[in-house]
Amino acid sequence: MDEQYDVIVLGTGLTECILSGLLSVEGKKVLHIDRNDYYGGSTASLHLNQLYTKFKNGATAPESFGKERDFNVDLIPKFAMASGEFVDILYHTDVTRYLEFRQIEGSFVYRDGKISKVPSSNAEALLSPLMSLAEKNRAKNFFEFIQNYDFENPATHQGLDLNVVPMSTIYEKFGLEAGTQDFIGHALALHLDDSYKTLPGRDTYRRICLYMNSMVRYGKSPYIYPVHGLGELPQGFARLSAIHGGTYMLSKPVDEIIYDVSGKFTGVKSGSEVAKANLVIGDASYFSTKVTKVGQVVRVICLLNHPIPETGDADSVQIVIPQNQIGRNHDIYIAAVSSAHSVASAGHYIAIVSSIVASGSGDAEAEVAAGVALLGPVLEKFVHVDDLYEPIADGSSDQVFISKSYDATSHFETVCADVKDIYKRITGADLKVEGKVKRIEDDE
C-alpha cells in the first residue's frame, strides 16, 4: 500500500466500482479500499443471517426460511432499464460477461385503490382499466405526439416546443385527466413527485421514450435484473478494474485522509501505511465534512411466501404508487423479486418498499404503510432510513470527488448521471460508451 497511485477509491458502492473500472481500463493505477469485508457498500446484497445481524441486533434467521445463503437481499432496490445508459455502460465495459440478467415480469401502477398492470402492448392498452375509452383516445393522441416529435422539425411540434413549454401545458393541450397524468408522469416517466409539471417537457419526453424503448426491447416490462442480486454489479466492475491492474483491499480501515497545506488531497493513511495519489473518489461516509444532507429515504425490506396480490402471480414486479393517489408529496415504489432470480429460497419473495421521507416526519415507516399494505401477509420486515448526501464542492480545488447517495428512484439512470458527472470533472471529457473496451482475459 505504501506507494504512489493515480487514483484512490474509497468504498465499493456501485458508483465507485464503475468509476474504478472505467479509469483502470484507461490505464490509471487505481487503489480501491473498503472498510467492509464485502463488496457493494450500501448497494450490497446480503445473505439472510447478514441481514438479521445488521437489522435485528444479531438475531439468527429462522430455519423455516431455508438455507441462509439462498438469500441475496438488496439493501437498495433498483432495476435496470433495458435500453438505458446503465446497460450501455455494462456492454461498453463488457462487464456483462460476469453477469446474467432476467427480465422483471411486470410493471404496475396503483390507481383508484387497486393495482393495475402498465400495458405492454396495444392489445393490453385496449383492455386496461386504467382509462375510459374516451381517455384512451386522448392518451393515444398524446403518445403519437411523443413518438413523432422531432426537435429539429417544427412541423411535428403541434405548437409545443418541449425545450420551453412546461409539462402541465402539454397535458392540457391533449385534455388528459389527472389520473392519466399520474400514470404518465410517475409510472412511465418515473418522476419522484409532481414538480416536473412546472418544468419544460424535454426531460419527461426523454424519460417516456426511454421507458417505451425499454419495453419494446423485451416485452412484459422495461426492466431487467441481475441473477443473484444487485451485489453482483459492483463485483463485476471490481473484477474489470482488477484485470486492468486495479488493486483491491477489503476490511481495510481508513484512519486519515491526508491533505497538503493548500487543502489538496495527497493520500490515505491506514495504520502505519500511507498510500499517495493525485485524486480520491469516494462515497459520503468517508468525507463527513465535505457533504451536505439533502433528505432521507425509507426502505422496508419484506420477506414473503407468496407473490404480491393482484399481480397475476408474477415472480417479479415493480409497482409505482403515485403521490396523488395516497395524499403524499412523494411516490412510493415497490420492487419485488424471488427465487426465480436466485435471491431467495424456493417459494419465497423479497419485496422492498421505498420512498422519500417527508421533511419533519416523525415516523418514516408510516410513510410507506400504503405500500406495505399491498403486499399481503409479511413473514419478516427490516426497516432502514438512510440519509441522502451530496458533495458541497465539485472536487476541482481539493481533488476529492464524492458520489451522491442513492436516491429513491427505482432504476439506475440517476446513478449513471452521477458517474458521468464525476468522470467529466475528473478527466475533463465526456464519458463515451460506444463499442466495447479492449478485453484483457483474466487468469481464470
Question: Can you tell me about this structure?
Answer:
Among the domains are: 57-80 and 293-388, Guanine Nucleotide Dissociation Inhibitor, domain 2 (2-Layer Sandwich); 119-218, Guanine Nucleotide Dissociation Inhibitor, domain 1 (Orthogonal Bundle), CATH 1.10.405. The protein is an alpha/beta fold and 444 residues long. Helices cover 27% and strands 24% of the residues. The strands form four sheets. Strands 1, 2, 10, 11, 12, 13 and 19 form a seven-stranded mixed beta sheet that branches. Strands 8-7-15-16-17-14-18 form a seven-stranded mixed beta sheet. Strands 5-9-6 form a three-stranded antiparallel beta sheet. The longest helix has 17 residues, at 202-218.
Low-pLDDT sequence parts: none
* Share in helix: 25-40%
Strand content: 15-25%
CATH homology superfamily name of the domain at 57-80 and 293-388:
Guanine Nucleotide Dissociation Inhibitor, domain 2
Measured distance between first and last alpha carbons: 25 Å
CATH architecture tag of the domain at 57-80 and 293-388: 2-Layer Sandwich
Question: SSE layout and pairings?
Answer:
Blueprint: E1 4-10, H1 14-25, E2 30-33, E3 45-46, H2 48-55, E4 73-74, E5 80-81, H3 85-93, E6 101-103, E7 106-111, E8 114-117, H4 122-127, H5 133-148, H6 167-174, H7 178-188, H8 202-218, E9 223-226, H9 232-243, E10 247-249, E11 256-259, E12 265-270, E13 273-282, E14 291-304, E15 317-321, H10 323-326, E16 332-338, E17 349-356, H11 369-372, E18 380-391, E19 400-402, H12 413-427
Helix pairs in contact: 1-9, 1-12
